[in-house]
Amino acid sequence: MKRLRYFILIVSFLILPTVVWAETETDYYAIFMNSKKIGYAALDRVVTAGEVRSTQKITMTIARMNVPISITMTETHIETIDGKPLAFESVQDMSGFIMKAVGTVRPDGTVDVEVTSAAGSQKQSMTWPTGALMSEGMSLLQKKKGMTEGTTYEVNAFSAAMLNALTTQITIGPKKKVDLLGRVVTAREVKSIVKDLAGGITETNYVNDDQEMLKSIVPMMGMKMELVTCGKAFALSQSDVVDFFDKLLLPAPKPLEDIEKAVSADYYIMPTENRKLSIPRTDSQSVQPYGENGLIVTVRPQRMPAGVAFPYKGSDARALAALKPNRFLQSDHKEIIEMARLAGGNTKDTAEAVGRIERFVCEYIEEKNLSVGYASAVEVAQSRQGDCSEHAVLTAALCRAVGIPAEVVVGLVFFKGPGSGSGSENGLFGPHAWAQAYLDGRWFGIDATGSPRGFGAGHITLGAGSGGLEGFFEVIANLGYFRIVDIK
Fold first, then answer.
1. Of 21, 48, 154, 479, which one is least surrounded by beta carbons within 10 A?
2. Which helix or strand (DSSP H or E) is residue 461 part of?
């Protein structure tokens, strides 16, 4: 089952637009999830030889189903004194699965990037996003705009973890009383909305008169994450481990028998808060309004047509993008190419090849466990372990390697609950990941976990993408904020 380890990246990314960095010392913050301390953040800024180096480190431990997942993320921005980007570095350590991205920004706007992981090193070039700012540039802009209540502006904030810039709207609010671990102070409220992610993910910050961040609150998945300024000793002190997985499970409103065999299923969904839900339409999923704020999501799985040859030679832009290798789906890696040929065999029929790859991945991943942080396709190929997301990235990468467009999908899947007395007698819907392949002008679901019979009417899609960070924000933005009130 999907454990949504990417939610920490929201905090890692959203802190940057609202921080004015200290000149010489490190600032420490305790990280709380639902009022329990689960880790810390350390932020510092060093000026040397006309360059500004801003570094942010976040480390925490969470758990799902009593399996701890350690997360450490470090992001460094190097800029000129006046905020022009020079270089960046991002290091993600998800329970020992480490991915590092280092980039240098040339004067002409070309960015040379090298990504290093267990798969080796990959070099690529990209164009610096128009108008994108990093830490120092953001701080300078914030000082220029001032802290007058009602001030609103937008900025393209660069995230080295995502290798992209996202449009962020910043609004200066009123002064409010804020509790800082028992010490109450008056601070200015500053709201940041990342407009490019799942219809807008909001962070509320509180800053002092020097525009230094004191507290940050990010609601996600029906819970609340907080960063609160504190001393080094408290920040580094022992933390709790919060198991959040059970908070993401949705009980089925009625008994379901073999829903994965059903031709279709209508899910009547209502928000638990006064908010707009964002659930996508796909080739196997339609969405229509229900009541005042609800949705009817109809899942109707399709059977892949036979006789469609691969590799794909069409012109659909999304399908062509879903053929390209990336740092999570290394479909151009020798090991993945050889494995894809082995899995697909000699067939030239797309549907048959996809079916073979699906069965191959299900059997190839021998150790089905929850302890993997987030592995790329090559790392899964080497370790042969993981949960649903590891099955999904390997499946998508193998499809791409033989010329079949494929994406990683995140959403919900139905499964039987623990049984009587658990409140889940009718079964549960929990976070999950699978893949989808493109053929004959349509996208078809593939679930190599065999959960329980591959992709079916018990799968509700919340997002899809390249296997990187972007798809998970759809889950974070929606999960925990709705309930399934009926199924027909």
1. 48
2. strand 459-465
| Backbone φ and ψ of 137, nearest 5° | -60, -40
- Which residue segment(s) compose the domain that 198 sits in? 7-244
pLDDT of residue 156 exceeding 80, the answer is yes
Query: From the CB of residue 341, how many other CB atoms can be counted at a distance below 10 Å?
Result: 13
- Tell me which residue has tokens 């399709």: 302
Q: Identify whether 249 is part of a domain.
A: no
Residue 158: the pLDDT is 92
Start-to-end Cα distance in the chain: 24
Q: Which of 33-42, 361-370, 411-420 is predicted least confidently?
A: 411-420
In a domain, 1, yes or no: no
Q: Is 124 exposed, middle or buried (0-12, 13-18, 19+ CB in 10 A)?
A: middle
Give the strand pairing for 385-386 and 406-415.
Answer: unpaired
Quick check: 103 and 163 in contact, CB under 8 A?
yes
Query: Are 270 and 209 in the same domain?
Result: no
Residue 404 has pLDDT above 90, yes or no: yes
- pLDDT-above-90 percentage for the chain: 57
pLDDT at 12 over 60: no
Same structural domain, 263 and 130: no
More confident residue, 479 or 235: 235
Q: Are 327 and 99 in contact (CB under 8 A)?
A: yes
Cis peptide before 174 (omega within 30 of 0): no
* Number of domains within the chain: 2
The predicted model scores a pTM of: 0.81
Q: Which residues contact 327 (CB under 8 A, 6 or more apart)?
A: 99, 101, 115, 117, 122, 376, 468
Q: Across the chain, what does the average pLDDT equal?
A: 86
The answer to whether residue 106 sits within a structural domain is: yes
Cβ–Cβ < 8 Å for 217, 229: no
The dihedrals phi and psi of 113, each to the nearest 5 degrees, come to -120, 135
Show the 3-state SS of 371-434: CCCCCCHHHHHHHCEECHHHHHHHHHHHHHHCCCCEEEEEEEEEECCCCCCCCCCCCEEEEEEE
Question: Residue 15's pLDDT is what?
Answer: 41
